[in-house]
Design a protein that fits this description.
Layout: E1 23-26, H1 33-44, E2 46-51, H2 69-72, E3 77-78, H3 91-107, E4 111-116, H4 119-127, H5 137-144, H6 148-158, H7 169-182, E5 200-205, H8 208-224, H9 227-232, H10 247-254, H11 260-283, E6 289-292, H12 299-310
Parallel strand pairs: 1-4, 1-5, 2-3, 2-4, 5-6
Helix pairs in contact: 1-12, 3-4, 5-7, 6-7, 8-11, 10-11
Length: about 300
Amino acid sequence: MVEAPGFPRETNRVPSDKNNAPFFLLGPTAVGKSALAVEFAERVGGEIVGADALQIYAGLDILSAKPPPELRARVPHHLIGEVPLTAPFDVAQWLARARERIATIAARGRVPVVCGGTGLYVRALTHGLAPLPGADATLRASLEKEPLPALAERLLALDPASTVDIRNSRRVIRALEVCLLTGRPFSSFRTEWSGDAAPRGFIVKRARDELHAAIHARTEAMFAAGVVEEVAAAGEVGPTAAQMLGFAEIRAHLAGKITRSECIESIALATRQYAKRQLTWFRRERGFEWLDLSAAPDPLAILVALTSKSA
């Protein structure tokens, strides 16, 4: 077996299937995926493939809650910190990179461990994407000038069945762009994803109060670690990277519009709301096991045991 440079060969590995198909470890923000994924990857001889729409960006490491350096040093991580903050990035670009990395990891005889919370990215990887038109620079520039409430109203008029998060300007603009370019509701393309896949993996969760406490603690820790200074020094940030949770709030704090405590509370609230939306998405997914970290005394043992059965 060819090992990734700089990383030792693991012992006590769990057998994987003959194709080294990807293993998924998914869940909401702050649930504890990153540390568990590293422990699991060490056990199975894996490498982690990030499935996070904002951790893909290089920079703003504290704000985007990237796995800390000590975790990333233990096993190879891919699709984390690879795209300039000024660059636009979408699910199709991520999917192309993810497929290439997964194939490369498997070719080395290792297990790709897909870890993240961006449900659309995971869905694209397990089911593929319907053909969508590329971005239209002129149309997009025009849409970006409109206020978000007006864009959301236009989208819902063209696509009453839309499930796009209307608080996310990037996604609203893309969905509206597709509607206008194709003359079809954006939601209609979701039905063109391929049939049910049979992925292997887990969606992890915690008790609601426990997750909320973890979110608040992480938000406080981000500020203690210098997230305000990180955002102040970020320089130019593109419209996609600017969607990071807390970016707008910290910019408002830097401008003197809100206090530090108000900023922390606002970010913690937005993060709780985001975690709720993530869980809503994952409840619609099929084929994954659910693992409650609040109730499992040894979640790694559960992952390993069930993975061994499916190998």
